[in-house]
Amino acid sequence: MQAAPTIREARRTTSVRRKVAAYVALTKPRVIELLLVVTAPTMVLAADGLPSLWLVVATLIGGAMSAGSAGAFNCYIDRDIDRVMKRTKGRPLVTGELTDREALVFAWALGAASIAWLWVFTNWLAALLSLGAILLYVVFYSLILKRRTAQNIVWGGVAGCMPVLIGWAAVTESLSWAPFILFLIIFLWTPPHYWPLSMKYKDDYAAAGVPMLAVVRGRAQVGLQVILYAWATVAASLLLIPVAGMGLLYTSVAIVSGAWFVGECHRLYSLAIRGEDVSPMRVFHGSIVYLSLLFLAVGIDPLLPF
């Protein structure tokens, strides 16, 4: 007689967990992780040492909410595309775990909360930059660029560069040349990071009618563009040395990891022009390793005496 309520409670708990998991998936957690990887080291560089732990935590929470809001808006806007693409078939608006209205309300609420949080616990400049990041990703990239041009990732990637400005502003309540160099590094890094992924899922994007570079150009052309942007990324990373007074650790990491990253991009291009099987995901994952190493060095270098 007592088993039935227990079963109902278990089902209700499972349902709540699935709903929470769906909301989390809506925020694109992997993207958030990458954005936070660049924020904390930037704050160390801005402080020229260890900033307040609470300030770092508050900035990361606000940044995560901001990025999560942008991701949720993107899932709502791209729900028709996501239903066509195999890569995105597990997203909550495709599976039906969330309704369109639930997703939209969540996106608005999370975005408003992120701006309010940053305004209260960091400063007005960080909050306004967070608002700008959401608008850039939702309006400039998702609504305007993504379905219209093969350069969508290049200019749409501006939104992904904003966390370094937000992190710097949270510490200094101002901006200078150094955070803009960090901004430039991520801006130039985005195409060689994302275009290999678009090569992997070329048929998906073609079926969805999204003009990614891999859809409208051949593999060799994509490979060449990846190389050019990779070289530009490394050049920008070296520019930070004189601008921010970086030391031996950062300089070494920037040169060695940059050489490795460029080498991987050249390998992709070489295979593409020879008509051989390419492994674009190797460059995709390698780009994440490269950026993580670079920003790890950004965060450690100011703490060293050399």
TrEMBL record:
Pathway(s) where this gene product acts: Porphyrin-containing compound metabolism; heme O biosynthesis; heme O from protoheme: step 1/1
Keyword annotations from UniProtKB, A to Z: Cell membrane, Heme biosynthesis, Membrane, Transferase, Transmembrane, Transmembrane helix
PROSITE patterns noted in UniProt: UBIA (PS00943)
Localization (cell): Cell membrane
Reaction(s) the record says it catalyses: heme b + (2E,6E)-farnesyl diphosphate + H2O = Fe(II)-heme o + diphosphate
Function: Converts heme B (protoheme IX) to heme O by substitution of the vinyl group on carbon 2 of heme B porphyrin ring with a hydroxyethyl farnesyl side group.
Species of provenance: Agromyces tropicus
Name of the molecule in the record: Protoheme IX farnesyltransferase
Note: Carbon 2 of the heme B porphyrin ring is defined according to the Fischer nomenclature.
Membrane-spanning intervals of the chain: 20-47, 53-77, 98-119, 125-145, 152-171, 177-195, 222-241, 247-263, 283-300
A Pfam family this chain is assigned to: UbiA
Signal peptide: none
Family: Belongs to the UbiA prenyltransferase family. Protoheme IX farnesyltransferase subfamily.
Domain of life, per lineage: Bacteria
Record PANTHER family: 4-HYDROXYBENZOATE SOLANESYLTRANSFERASE, PROTOHEME IX FARNESYLTRANSFERASE, MITOCHONDRIAL
